[in-house]
Structure formats: structure tokens, C-alpha cells
Write a structure and sequence with these properties.
The chain is an alpha/beta fold and 337 residues long. The chain folds into two domains: 128 residues, 3-Layer(aba) Sandwich (Rossmann fold); 129 residues, 3-Layer(aba) Sandwich (Rossmann fold), CATH 3.40.50.1980. The protein contains 15 helices and twelve strands. Strand 1 and strand 2 form a beta hairpin.
Length: 337
């Protein structure tokens, strides 16, 4: 009798142990499933970092017209209405570019194979290039509204104003736009080191003497300020002193291109050194030949002291960062040989 009861108790204990094991297993499975579900939920709430996903990711940015523009996070085919040199400096070659991009002497080799979209930009050419991003100056919308309206239907357009620092503003905006911020910072650090060395050399060579950029065209005389035709390179890069009349113009508009003047006003704007821009043939040359014979020209201090330096029109044309950097070296050699 006792043996029978002991066998029964043993069987019951075994059954209870099996049930407990099964119960614990079920709880463990449920816990694991819940943990797996939570992990899956956490992953899905984060951006997927696969290459396939990245190709289609976009971001919202504000351009210089204060427009919100949805652009690719990693654009693959960029059309540059302007600013092709800035893209090249970041290691990115545009698929298409406006006419000015092909005029930059220092990047012509790198522009081989880039499609010319024309000036004004041709929407049909842009369509054929199938861009995922268009970068254009704000002036394009002012002078080519119909073309830009059509292009805006083909790809997002990011507008950039010329009325700002070409290196620390324009270049950095482009770099941030296309995900090349660190590359731009490295380029700028290298440039600033060169510029500072140039400032020191120039200061030692000419001290407080002033420098003017004077361009002669048929029927038009211009003093260049702080943008293209050596303006930014001279004023912001090398920080060369400007005559009072030139400094006043720059103070009114820090990134203005040029001031048109009459020949009679030239003595007010002329510095101790003159950078002269005039083509070597045609009507522009004939215009300067007449000026060169005038008393106004020959009485300028820069002329009397042999401090007139001729600049190549095509080489100094651009206001892009590559032109700024390269012409700075040549101009420094002229002023501080």
C-alpha cells in the first residue's frame, strides 16, 4: 500500500516538473518574441543605411531665394548653370554647365565631356541630361524666367546669389548641399594659408601703397571692386589697400562687381599700382591707345612710376574659387616680384 502511494506521488511530481519546464519555456519564447519585436520596431524607426536606400533619400534645404527645395541627399547628375569650378574643386564633375563654366582658363581640361547647356540655358538640353539637381545663380531667374520655369519641372533647382563671399558663403553652401562639407573645409584651410602668406609678402613689398583694377572697353571704362576680374582676389584675398574712392564703393556694396566711370574721374580712383585689363586687338585696343596718349593717363602716379600691370582678360574673367586662387599667385608676383 505504501509502495503504491509512493509511486503515485513520484508520478505526480514528474508531471508537475514537466509542466513547469513547459511553462518556463513558453514564457522565455514570449519574452524573446517581444524583444525581437521591439528590436525590429527600433530599427524601422531609423534611416536605413543601405546603398539602395541612400540613392533615393532627400532633404529639405533653403536656397538664397528663401525657397524650401527638396534635393537628393547624394545627387548623381548635377547641372551647373554656374559654379562648375566649385563642384570640380569638391571632386564632382557636373553633367552639364552654362557657358561661363567653359570660360574658366584653369578648369577647361576638367570640363571636357561636360555638356554645354547654353546661355540662356536650353531646357531641352537639360532634359536630355536627366539631372537630379540643378544649381543656378539667382540672376538666371531674373533674366531667363521662362527657361528656368521649364527647367524647374525637370529637376529641383537650388538658387545661389552672387552677392556674398564666393569662398566662405557660396562654396560652403554648395558643399553642404551635395554632402561635401569636410572637403570644402580642407580646401578653404589650404587656401587661407596661401592667402595669409601672400598678404604678408605684399605688405612687406608695397606697404600702404594702393592698387586699382581698371578695365578699358570700347565706350566703357570700369573700376573693378570686390568680385570678378581680380576684385575678390585683390581685396579680400591679398587685402591690398584701395584708394579712397574705390573703398567707398566697396563699403556701399561689399560684393559689387564694378563701377563705371568717365576718364576724367580716373585720377580719383587710380591707385599707386594699376592692374590694367584691355584686349590686345579690336575696338578695345583702339580705345586704350587713345587713352594712353592723354594727359590724364600720363599724369597718373602709377604710370609715371612704371607700376601698371597688364592682366590677361580671359584668365582673370571669373569670380569662381579656382580663378581666385590661381590669379592670386600671379598678381602677387607682379606686385611683389
Amino acid at each position: 500500500m505504501n509502495q503504491t502511494m509512493n509511486s503515485t506521488k513520484t508520478a505526480i511530481a514528474v508531471i508537475m516538473m514537466i509542466a513547469l519546464v513547459l511553462l518556463l519555456g513558453a514564457c522565455g519564447t514570449e519574452g524573446n518574441n517581444q524583444a525581437d519585436a521591439e528590436a525590429t520596431s527600433n530599427v524601422s524607426s531609423q534611416p536605413v543605411q543601405s546603398a539602395i536606400s541612400n540613392e533615393n533619400e532627400t532633404k529639405l534645404v533653403k536656397d538664397d531665394l528663401n525657397r524650401e527645395v527638396e534635393v537628393p541627399l547624394h545627387p548623381k547628375a548635377i547641372v551647373a548653370g554656374e559654379f562648375a569650378s566649385e563642384l570640380l574643386a569638391l571632386g564632382v564633375r557636373p553633367v552639364g554647365a552654362g557657358d561661363n563654366g567653359f570660360k574658366i582658363v584653369y578648369t577647361q581640361t576638367e570640363m571636357e565631356g561636360v555638356e554645354r547647356i547654353g546661355d540662356p540655358p536650353n531646357p531641352e538640353t537639360v532634359l536630355e541630361l536627366n539631372p537630379d539637381l540643378v544649381i543656378a545663380p539667382t540672376v538666371f531667374l531674373e533674366i531667363y524666367p521662362e527657361q528656368m520655369e521649364k527647367i524647374a519641372k525637370l529637376a529641383p533647382v537650388f538658387y545661389i546669389s552672387f552677392d556674398q563671399d564666393p569662398i566662405h558663403d557660396i562654396f560652403m553652401k554648395i558643399a553642404d548641399l551635395i554632402g561635401k562639407t569636410e572637403e570644402a573645409k580642407a580646401w578653404i584651410a589650404s587656401y587661407e594659408a596661401e592667402a595669409q602668406a601672400g598678404r604678408d609678402k605684399l605688405s612687406s613689398a608695397i606697404g600702404d601703397e594702393t592698387v586699382t583694377i581698371f578695365r578699358v572697353e570700347k565706350g566703357r571704362l570700369r573700376i573693378y571692386l570686390n568680385r570678378n576680374f581680380a576684385g575678390y582676389m585683390l581685396r579680400t584675398g591679398l587685402q591690398a589697400n584701395a584708394p579712397g574712392a574705390v573703398a567707398a564703393e566697396i563699403e556701399q556694396n561689399p560684393y559689387a562687381s564694378a563701377k563705371e566711370i568717365s576718364l576724367e574721374l580716373l585720377p580719383q580712383y587710380a591707385g599707386d599700382h594699376i592692374f590694367l585689363i584691355v584686349r590686345d586687338d579690336g575696338d578695345d585696343k583702339a580705345e586704350f591707345d587713345a587713352i594712353e596718349k592723354s594727359g590724364i593717363w600720363n599724369n597718373l602716379e602709377a604710370v609715371k612710376n612704371g607700376n601698371v600691370h597688364r592682366l590677361e582678360t580671359d584668365k582673370y574673367y571669373g569670380s569662381d574659387i579656382v580663378t581666385i586662387r590661381e590669379t592670386m599667385k600671379e598678381a602677387l608676383d607682379m606686385l611683389a616680384p
